[in-house]
Amino acid sequence: MTSATSDSSSTARAQIGVTGLAVMGSNIARNLARHGHTVALHNRSIAKTDALIAEHGDEGDFVRTETVEEFVAALQKPRRVLIMVKAGEATDAVIEELAGAMETGDIIIDGGNALYTDTIRREAALRERGLHFVGAGISGGEEGALNGPSIMPGGPKESYEALGPLLESIAAQVDGVPCCTHIGPDGSGHFVKMVHNGIEYADMQLIGEAYNLFRDALGYDADRIADVFTEWNSGELESYLVEITAEVLQQKDAKTGKPLVDVIVDAAEQKGTGRWTVKSALDLGVPVTGIAEAVFARALSGSRDQRKAAQGLASGALGAKPTDAEQFTEDIRQALYASKIVAYAQGFDQIRAGSDEYGWDLTPGDMATIWRGGCIIRARFLNRIKEAYDTNPALTSLIVEPYFREAIENAIDSWRRVVVTATQLGIPVPAFASSLSYYDGLRAERLPAALTQGQRDFFGAHTYERIDADGKFHTLWSGDHSEVSA
Ligand code: 6PG
After folding, report:
1. Predicted local distance difference test score (pLDDT) of residue 135
2. Is the dihedral of CA 442, 444, 450, 455 positive or negative?
3. Which amino acids bring their CB within 6 angstroms of ligand 1?
């Protein structure tokens, strides 16, 4: 079936080009070819292009090109080029080279994990030059790229007409619906992918805390914990991350025979998308506490010198370990589910705030739809989130929607027991605890923020509002303590 050729310049026959043929790029190119699209290939070093064609050339129709000019010339108009290179300066360099060789109406798609503000900048610059720039978040890792990722393309709506069917054909499908849709203008696709990754961080941290409780509060070994996660994966917690957690826990180290997880250094790394999510949330004023705790937990785990110095610090008097393992297991499951709902609720809040800030007019229900398959945070309960937004597109918060409200009400006693027990045992549960505090904070009738306002007015005359009158007020703290209208 392959007709890979280096003599492509005279025939513009490829429907799409992929440049940057590391694993993600190669797999997306193969996925496109497997779906019947002719794919022009380009890479800085031709060796990668040749390796792909040698190993997988029979999977579809590839066009081998060496130079950027040859690559661009191999494409049907409007030309569609997917860039799969490292986010940052490498992306700018490739865009510049391509833009020089492309024509009005052509489309450049950045499929990397770019910072959405870079995508806003790039889209504006290319629009000036008559080109379409699409920032497409792609989730699902290497396996997803090959067999069906979740794709979050943002950019000019008109470019989606030429691009959408192609992307939708290679995306994961759930109930016949592709996990790909036009997200919104300019940087919105990469923004949404960033929040996806933030939720991924929170979900992973929550699963980690559950694992830690089984190990340190119940004394379970990795195999036993794997069994619990396997069982959970057949219920409402069913998700890709729970599924792979069981697999990771079952893995044995070839060298020592121990569970692999017991020989891996407990310092979590990060490439940056979680941190970006929190920075953006701070700017937008959205309390994504679960995501923030997850990012900080990774930072704490990596603070090796401080952790070493803190070894042996007093724990204080510790409480008793749970005696009813079955009940505590159910408590952890409920705490995980409730905290997970909070993490997704916060992520969706951030999407709404980003949409308002940048005027993107995003439809949150779309994210729930396209995250149901292909991506790292795919989970059974995304169907519920989709239903919630279908019923009420202007939902104030997921946690007040009847299904999730009831789920949390069912979980609340367990959730509190888990946080209390962990605290009494000296086991850190930053994401469980902060999610619970967030929930308690939101549902509180009265918060201590009134006192904060009083303090701010005292030292800075920052004024406050009253519960019983309109307007702003100030107390003459250094005078006679009377109140004046501000
Ligand atoms: C995905 C993943 C992917 C990548 C993360 C890893 O959606 O396919 O999120 O984008 O694996 O960026 O991020 P960290 O290295 O920061 O954990």
Report:
1. 98
2. negative
3. 113, 139-141, 197, 200, 270-271, 273-274, 375-376
